Protein backbone atom coordinates (compact mmCIF):
# COMPACT_ATOMS: atom_id res chain seq x y z
CA UNK A 1 0.00 0.00 0.00
CA UNK A 2 1.35 3.44 -0.96
CA UNK A 3 2.21 5.76 1.88
CA UNK A 4 3.93 8.85 0.60
CA UNK A 5 4.35 10.34 4.08
CA UNK A 6 6.57 7.50 5.29
CA UNK A 7 8.38 6.77 2.04
CA UNK A 8 11.49 8.56 0.68
CA UNK A 9 11.95 11.44 0.14
CA UNK A 10 9.32 12.75 2.62
CA UNK A 11 10.62 11.52 6.04
CA UNK A 12 14.14 12.91 5.55
CA UNK A 13 12.81 16.10 3.97
CA UNK A 14 10.37 16.74 6.82
CA UNK A 15 13.06 15.97 9.45
CA UNK A 16 15.33 18.54 7.81
CA UNK A 17 12.59 21.17 7.46
CA UNK A 18 11.47 20.78 11.08
CA UNK A 19 15.12 21.15 12.16
CA UNK A 20 15.46 24.31 10.05
CA UNK A 21 12.18 25.61 11.48
CA UNK A 22 13.41 25.05 15.04
CA UNK A 23 16.68 26.87 14.32
CA UNK A 24 15.09 29.94 12.69
CA UNK A 25 15.23 33.16 14.69
CA UNK A 26 13.77 36.63 14.36
CA UNK A 27 15.33 39.56 16.25
CA UNK A 28 12.28 41.70 15.35
CA UNK A 29 9.96 39.28 17.11
CA UNK A 30 12.30 38.64 20.03
CA UNK A 31 12.27 42.40 20.69
CA UNK A 32 8.48 42.48 20.87
CA UNK A 33 6.74 42.42 24.24
CA UNK A 34 4.23 39.64 24.88
CA UNK A 35 1.47 42.29 25.06
CA UNK A 36 2.40 43.63 21.63
CA UNK A 37 2.50 40.11 20.20
CA UNK A 38 -0.91 39.33 21.70
CA UNK A 39 -2.35 42.54 20.23
CA UNK A 40 -0.99 41.66 16.78
CA UNK A 41 -2.33 38.09 17.03
CA UNK A 42 -5.85 39.37 17.64
CA UNK A 43 -5.77 42.21 15.10
CA UNK A 44 -7.82 42.15 11.90
CA UNK A 45 -5.95 45.14 10.50
CA UNK A 46 -2.26 44.78 11.41
CA UNK A 47 -1.78 41.14 10.43
CA UNK A 48 0.27 41.95 7.33
CA UNK A 49 2.77 43.99 9.33
CA UNK A 50 2.95 41.25 11.97
CA UNK A 51 3.63 38.41 9.53
CA UNK A 52 6.03 40.56 7.53
CA UNK A 53 8.08 41.01 10.71
CA UNK A 54 7.91 37.21 11.15
CA UNK A 55 8.95 36.38 7.60
CA UNK A 56 12.01 34.44 8.78
CA UNK A 57 10.01 32.29 11.19
CA UNK A 58 8.51 29.07 9.88
CA UNK A 59 5.71 28.65 12.48
CA UNK A 60 4.87 25.14 11.27
CA UNK A 61 2.11 22.92 12.59
CA UNK A 62 3.34 20.62 15.34
CA UNK A 63 4.66 17.26 14.09
CA UNK A 64 1.63 15.43 15.46
CA UNK A 65 -0.67 17.95 13.79
CA UNK A 66 1.10 17.32 10.49
CA UNK A 67 0.49 13.58 10.86
CA UNK A 68 -3.10 14.31 11.88
CA UNK A 69 -3.60 16.33 8.69
CA UNK A 70 -2.34 13.46 6.57
CA UNK A 71 -4.52 11.00 8.45
CA UNK A 72 -7.70 13.12 8.20
CA UNK A 73 -7.17 13.78 4.50
CA UNK A 74 -6.60 10.06 3.87
CA UNK A 75 -9.52 8.85 5.95
CA UNK A 76 -11.94 11.27 4.27
CA UNK A 77 -10.49 10.38 0.84
CA UNK A 78 -9.97 14.08 0.24
CA UNK A 79 -9.34 15.14 -3.35
CA UNK A 80 -9.86 18.86 -2.90
CA UNK A 81 -8.13 20.82 -0.14
CA UNK A 82 -7.84 24.53 0.67
CA UNK A 83 -5.12 25.84 2.98
CA UNK A 84 -4.85 29.29 4.56
CA UNK A 85 -1.19 29.94 5.49
CA UNK A 86 1.49 28.04 3.56
CA UNK A 87 4.64 29.45 5.18
CA UNK A 88 7.55 27.20 4.09
CA UNK A 89 5.19 24.38 3.12
CA UNK A 90 5.43 21.89 5.99
CA UNK A 91 1.66 21.39 6.44
CA UNK A 92 1.26 21.58 2.65
CA UNK A 93 3.64 18.63 2.23
CA UNK A 94 1.54 16.52 4.62
CA UNK A 95 -1.71 17.39 2.86
CA UNK A 96 -0.28 16.91 -0.63
CA UNK A 97 1.13 13.51 0.41
CA UNK A 98 -2.41 12.48 1.37
CA UNK A 99 -3.76 13.67 -1.98
CA UNK A 100 -1.12 11.59 -3.76
CA UNK A 101 -2.14 8.50 -1.78
CA UNK A 102 -5.83 9.21 -2.39
CA UNK A 103 -5.18 8.98 -6.11
CA UNK A 104 -4.58 12.67 -6.87
CA UNK A 105 -6.40 15.95 -6.43
CA UNK A 106 -5.88 19.65 -5.98
CA UNK A 107 -4.55 21.63 -3.03
CA UNK A 108 -4.94 25.40 -3.17
CA UNK A 109 -2.84 27.16 -0.56
CA UNK A 110 -2.27 30.84 0.16
CA UNK A 111 0.73 32.84 1.37
CA UNK A 112 1.35 36.58 1.20
CA UNK A 113 5.07 36.54 1.95
CA UNK A 114 6.79 36.03 -1.46
CA UNK A 115 10.04 34.63 0.00
CA UNK A 116 8.07 31.96 1.88
CA UNK A 117 5.98 31.03 -1.15
CA UNK A 118 9.16 30.59 -3.19
CA UNK A 119 10.74 28.32 -0.58
CA UNK A 120 7.51 26.34 -0.22
CA UNK A 121 7.56 25.75 -3.98
CA UNK A 122 11.13 24.42 -3.74
CA UNK A 123 10.15 22.08 -0.89
CA UNK A 124 7.17 20.73 -2.81
CA UNK A 125 9.38 20.05 -5.82
CA UNK A 126 11.88 18.30 -3.54
CA UNK A 127 9.05 16.22 -2.11
CA UNK A 128 7.80 15.30 -5.58
CA UNK A 129 4.39 16.83 -4.83
CA UNK A 130 4.37 20.14 -6.69
CA UNK A 131 2.01 18.88 -9.40
CA UNK A 132 -0.78 18.69 -6.79
CA UNK A 133 -0.39 22.15 -5.30
CA UNK A 134 -1.26 25.66 -6.42
CA UNK A 135 0.29 28.35 -4.23
CA UNK A 136 -1.68 31.59 -4.48
CA UNK A 137 0.48 34.53 -3.51
CA UNK A 138 -1.15 37.50 -1.83
CA UNK A 139 -3.70 38.09 0.91
CA UNK A 140 -5.94 35.03 1.23
CA UNK A 141 -8.93 37.32 1.64
CA UNK A 142 -8.41 38.08 -2.05
CA UNK A 143 -6.71 34.94 -3.40
CA UNK A 144 -9.24 32.51 -1.94
CA UNK A 145 -12.20 34.63 -3.02
CA UNK A 146 -12.29 33.17 -6.55
CA UNK A 147 -11.88 29.99 -8.56
CA UNK A 148 -12.34 27.43 -5.82
CA UNK A 149 -13.28 23.83 -6.67
CA UNK A 150 -17.02 23.05 -6.79
CA UNK A 151 -16.62 20.78 -3.79
CA UNK A 152 -14.03 21.08 -1.01
CA UNK A 153 -13.23 18.11 1.25
CA UNK A 154 -10.83 19.61 3.78
CA UNK A 155 -9.70 23.06 4.88
CA UNK A 156 -6.66 23.96 6.99
CA UNK A 157 -6.83 27.37 8.65
CA UNK A 158 -3.31 28.39 9.74
CA UNK A 159 -2.82 32.01 8.61
CA UNK A 160 -3.63 35.19 10.57
CA UNK A 161 -5.77 33.94 13.43
CA UNK A 162 -8.18 36.88 13.49
CA UNK A 163 -9.23 36.09 9.88
CA UNK A 164 -10.36 32.48 10.40
CA UNK A 165 -14.08 33.31 10.27
CA UNK A 166 -13.66 35.46 7.15
CA UNK A 167 -11.60 32.85 5.34
CA UNK A 168 -14.06 30.11 6.26
CA UNK A 169 -16.87 32.23 4.82
CA UNK A 170 -15.03 32.32 1.46
CA UNK A 171 -14.97 28.51 1.27
CA UNK A 172 -18.19 27.68 3.11
CA UNK A 173 -20.52 27.37 0.12
CA UNK A 174 -18.14 24.81 -1.43
CA UNK A 175 -17.83 22.52 1.59
CA UNK A 176 -19.31 19.12 0.96
CA UNK A 177 -21.35 17.50 3.75
CA UNK A 178 -18.78 15.82 5.98
CA UNK A 179 -15.96 18.17 4.96
CA UNK A 180 -13.43 18.79 7.73
CA UNK A 181 -12.02 22.11 8.86
CA UNK A 182 -8.84 22.03 10.91
CA UNK A 183 -8.09 25.34 12.62
CA UNK A 184 -4.66 25.56 14.24
CA UNK A 185 -4.31 27.72 17.36
CA UNK A 186 -7.96 28.73 17.08
CA UNK A 187 -7.93 29.92 20.70
CA UNK A 188 -6.70 33.21 19.27
CA UNK A 189 -9.94 33.56 17.34
CA UNK A 190 -12.90 33.52 19.75
CA UNK A 191 -15.19 34.79 16.99
CA UNK A 192 -14.37 31.73 14.87
CA UNK A 193 -14.84 29.32 17.79
CA UNK A 194 -18.19 30.87 18.72
CA UNK A 195 -19.34 30.48 15.11
CA UNK A 196 -18.35 26.85 14.46
CA UNK A 197 -19.50 25.75 17.91
CA UNK A 198 -22.92 27.43 17.75
CA UNK A 199 -25.69 24.85 17.20
CA UNK A 200 -27.25 26.63 14.20
CA UNK A 201 -24.01 27.17 12.27
CA UNK A 202 -24.06 23.92 10.34
CA UNK A 203 -20.95 22.43 11.95
CA UNK A 204 -20.06 19.91 14.61
CA UNK A 205 -16.95 21.15 16.32
CA UNK A 206 -14.58 20.00 19.05
CA UNK A 207 -11.26 21.17 20.49
CA UNK A 208 -8.72 18.50 19.63
CA UNK A 209 -5.11 17.62 20.38
CA UNK A 210 -4.46 20.68 22.55
CA UNK A 211 -4.28 23.47 20.01
CA UNK A 212 -6.55 22.43 17.16
CA UNK A 213 -10.28 22.99 16.59
CA UNK A 214 -11.68 20.19 14.44
CA UNK A 215 -15.01 20.89 12.77
CA UNK A 216 -17.18 18.98 10.36
CA UNK A 217 -19.64 20.48 7.90
CA UNK A 218 -23.08 19.02 8.47
CA UNK A 219 -25.33 18.31 5.55
C1 LIG B 1 1.49 29.72 11.14
S1 LIG B 1 2.18 30.06 9.57
C2 LIG B 1 1.68 28.70 8.57
C3 LIG B 1 2.46 27.45 8.83
C4 LIG B 1 2.20 26.35 7.83
N1 LIG B 1 0.80 26.02 7.77
C5 LIG B 1 3.01 25.14 8.20
O1 LIG B 1 2.52 24.29 8.93
O2 LIG B 1 4.16 25.08 7.77
C6 LIG B 1 1.12 31.33 8.98
C7 LIG B 1 1.48 31.80 7.59
O3 LIG B 1 0.34 32.45 7.04
C8 LIG B 1 0.75 33.58 6.32
N2 LIG B 1 -0.41 34.48 6.34
C9 LIG B 1 -0.98 35.07 7.42
N3 LIG B 1 -2.06 35.76 7.07
C10 LIG B 1 -2.19 35.63 5.73
C11 LIG B 1 -3.11 36.14 4.79
N4 LIG B 1 -4.12 36.95 5.14
N5 LIG B 1 -2.98 35.77 3.49
C12 LIG B 1 -1.94 34.96 3.10
N6 LIG B 1 -1.03 34.46 3.96
C13 LIG B 1 -1.14 34.79 5.26
C14 LIG B 1 1.95 34.11 7.07
O4 LIG B 1 2.81 34.88 6.25
C15 LIG B 1 2.60 32.82 7.57
O5 LIG B 1 3.61 32.38 6.69
TrEMBL record:
Pfam families: Methyltransf_24
Keyword Methyltransferase: yes
Alphabetized SUPFAM superfamilies for the sequence: S-adenosyl-L-methionine-dependent methyltransferases
UniProt entry keywords in alphabetical sequence: Methyltransferase, S-adenosyl-L-methionine, Transferase
Signal peptide: none
InterPro entries membership: SAM-dependent_MTases_sf (IPR029063), SAM_O-MeTrfase (IPR002935)
PROSITE patterns in alphabetical order: SAM_OMT_I
PANTHER family named among the record's database cross-references: PUTATIVE (AFU_ORTHOLOGUE AFUA_6G01830)-RELATED
Protein name, entry field: O-methyltransferase
Organism field: Massilia frigida
Lineage of origin: Bacteria, Pseudomonadati, Pseudomonadota, Betaproteobacteria, Burkholderiales
Amino acid sequence: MTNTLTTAPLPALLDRLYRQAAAATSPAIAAMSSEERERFMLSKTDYQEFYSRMKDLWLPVARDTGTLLYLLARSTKARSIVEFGTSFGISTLHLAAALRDNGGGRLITSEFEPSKAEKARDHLIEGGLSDLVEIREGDALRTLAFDLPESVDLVLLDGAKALYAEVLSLVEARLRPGALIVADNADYCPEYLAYVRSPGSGYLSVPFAGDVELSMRLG
